[in-house]
Amino acid sequence: MQNHKPFILWLFGVPGSGKSTIANQLAHCLAGPLQIIDSDDIRSRITPNPQWTDEERHLVYRAMWEIATTLYRHQISSIIAASAGGVSLDEYQRSAPPSTVFVYLKCELETAAARHPRRLYALASSQSQVRLPIIVGLKSQSTMTAREMDFTQRHGIVGYKITIPAKVDLELDTTSETSLQDNIDRIMLLINEKQ
């Protein structure tokens, strides 16, 4: 990408959907100053002993957004890798700079659970206070399949909702790892179009 202008890219989806993987791959492909803002890293700094409360979640997301918009004002692009569970991305979209892109990474829960590096799904099934952003839907409508509902029940996972915002710039199915490069290419094309 030549003569790049700053952008904000928010990758959201269930834990294990590939947000960090895609963010890191994109960072190698993009020119210009860029910062990855990963919710796992930010959460560990803001809340070293997370309680997974709604208040804590809002604090972490607000901090990530403030970092991204501050970097943008200083001509530095950022990629936010965060599930957006339990928060409304519509709120962030209203205050977003013009070259902000929201990409939903759709992934089947069993695949996401198997690939999550911190085994968060196992933690959620063993500790009742840990709630995962796994119930994806539009506003009040859940789109969990019967297979995903069975998976959460079998493993005792309690979830909270990822609300898909009214406007998503791109939806990518990340269940298949073979599509990683195609997904990277599609996101890069979208970023170029927004600039």
Furnish the topology, listing elements before pairings.
Layout: E1 8-12, H1 19-29, E2 34-38, H2 39-46, H3 54-73, E3 77-81, H4 89-94, E4 100-106, H5 109-115, H6 120-126, E5 132-138, E6 141-142, H7 146-155, E7 159-163, E8 170-173, H8 180-194
Parallel strand pairs: 1-3, 1-4, 2-3, 4-8, 5-7
Antiparallel strand pairs: 5-6
Helix pairs in contact: 1-8, 2-3
Explained architecture:
This protein has about 200 residues and is an alpha/beta fold. The protein is built from 8 helices and 8 strands, in the order βαβααβαβααββαββα. The chain has helices spanning about 20-30, 40-45, 55-75, 90-95, 110-115, 120-125, 145-155, 180-195, and strands at about 10, 35-40, 75-80, 100-105, 130-140, 140, 160-165, 170-175. Helix 2 (about 40-45) packs across helix 3. It is globular.
The residue-averaged pLDDT reads: 80
Largest sheet: 5 strands, parallel
Q: Based on Cα principal axes, name the global outline.
A: globular
Computed over alpha carbons, the radius of gyration is 16 Å
| Measured distance between first and last alpha carbons | 11 Å
**DSSP strand count:** 8
SS field, number of helical segments = 8
Query: Helices and strands: which structural class?
Result: alpha/beta
Give the helices and strands as they follow along the chain.
Answer: EHEHHEHEHHEEHEEH
Strand content: 15-25%
Unreliable runs, pLDDT <50, ≥5 residues?
A: 136-141
Q: Strands of the largest sheet, in order across it? A: 2-3-1-4-8
Give a short summary of the structure:
The chain has 195 residues and is α/β, with parallel strands linked by helices. The chain is built from eight helices and eight strands.
